[in-house]
Each structure stands twice: as C-alpha cells, then as structure tokens.
Automatic annotation (TrEMBL):
It comes from Lactuca saligna. The keyword Lyase applies. InterPro entries: Beta_CA_cladeB, Carbonic_anhydrase, Carbonic_anhydrase_CS, Carbonic_anhydrase_sf. This is Carbonic anhydrase. The keyword Cytoplasm applies.
Amino acid sequence: MRVGLRPFLRSIKVSILGSSPLYKSECSKSAASTTTISGSKLKFSGIEQTHLGFLNSSKSNLALKLKASREGVGLVQETKMDPPNLIKKSKDGSDSFTEMKQRFLSFKKEKYLGNLECYQELAEAQAPKFLVISCADSRVCPSYILGFQPGEAFVVRNIANLVPPFENGPCETNAALEFSVNALQVENILVTGHSCCGGIRALMGMEDEENSSSFIKNWVVVGKSAKSSTKAIASNLSFDQQCKHCEKESINHSLLNLLTYPWVEERVAKEQSKARKRWIHHQES
C-alpha cells in the first residue's frame, strides 16, 4: 500500500533518571492535586541525531543547533501494510456511527477485557514517556504511525503542529506542555510534521500583517518566523515548494519555541551543565 503522505519527525529530548512519578487521576482513591519536580534527577541528552530527525548539540554553549532534513523519513510510504478499513461516508451519517459502535464493542471485547489488569492500572495513574505535538490532520495519526500503546504518550494535536512561544500567552497547546512536563514529568518531547499540510499552506498564503477574523489564520500566524525564513531562503521556488520547505522549517522553530518555556529551558540548562562537568572531569582524568 502506498499513501500519499511522507511524515517527518523532529524531537527534543529531556531524560529523567529513575522512575517517573505517577500522576493520579481524579477518579483514583488516592488522588493527588499537585505534583512537583523537586528532587528529580534530570538528564538532558542534548539534541540527538536519530532515524526520526536531525538535531545536534553544542558542547561550548547552550545554543541548540537544529538541522532540517531535506527529505522526509517517509514512514508511511516505506511501510507495507494491509489497506486500512476506513469508515465510509454516508448521507445521514448513520452507517458511520454504526461502524464506530462496532469498533468500540470490538475494542472492549478483544483488547480492554483481554488486558483488564493493564487498563485498571492506567485508570489509577499515568506515566507517559512522551509528549507528542502533532498536526490534527486526519491522515497523520501519531499513535498509528509510531505505534504508541495506551499510557505511553500524552498527545496534543493542533493545526500545523505548532508550538507558540511562551510570551504569546496561554492556549491549549502550552497548557498541555506545562501539565505534561511539570505534573507528568515526561521524558521526551516529540514534534511531528507531515507533507501536504493545509495549515502551513494557509500560513504561506497569508499576506503580511493581514487582519482576519479567521480562527485558522489567527492560529497559524504563530509560524510567521518559519514563513519569514522560508521566504528568505526559498523565494525563487514555486509556492508548493515553499510550503514543503516551511513544513520542515516550522518544526525547527517550534523546537526553539519550546526553549522559551522556563521549566523546559531550566532542565536543558541544568543537564547541559552537568554533561559539561562530566566531560571536563573525564578529560582531566
């Protein structure tokens, strides 16, 4: 099967040594209203190069150097799988809901009841290893592409998988970032993007300083710095090629925006300092 999408991935990783605290849900018998990170030993692995993307760290300072891949990983294209059984559209929607109901009943019988102990533990607490910030595009589901199981990833989806800078003020995305980092203490933050992104296309098609009542345009303007750098580098390319470039560029800018949040920047700075001291000690010994 060949799907006309080529997801590409970038990540910034904060690793926590030892076990992560479990965040108790409200339905838990011993619910906890707050969780702190005091006493946790944190290890920032820097910016690492993996098969998911290209990121580099600098030993000389805290500046993070980001490198955009010119080609997507193509996880969907390179994966052989049976065609997914998609819910077909109907005029009144009745068939769609019938199919959805059957899927839920199948999940409950085959997966939920078959792994009841696991789901009961998840009902009491969650300790996901990843925060994933992904596009809301229906064709790019992070759990499907990356194989996440229940409890493994705290997922935030928005138009064009954007991370606004801290100074922009509160929104759903940075609320989820604060909760996952400070309360759940996730070890990794993964920003994913994809080709043919309608949100990026809307961003690139906007006029500078355009005033709009559109919720979409008022959101994607978060990526204006990625648009500016794309225009500076790829102004001689076609509009479609500029959009393709901006899809990658916006991820790099989102990674930089993550570092404008005090609780993320603090962990990065502490662990880079520790890594530098260990390196100096190793050289001296």
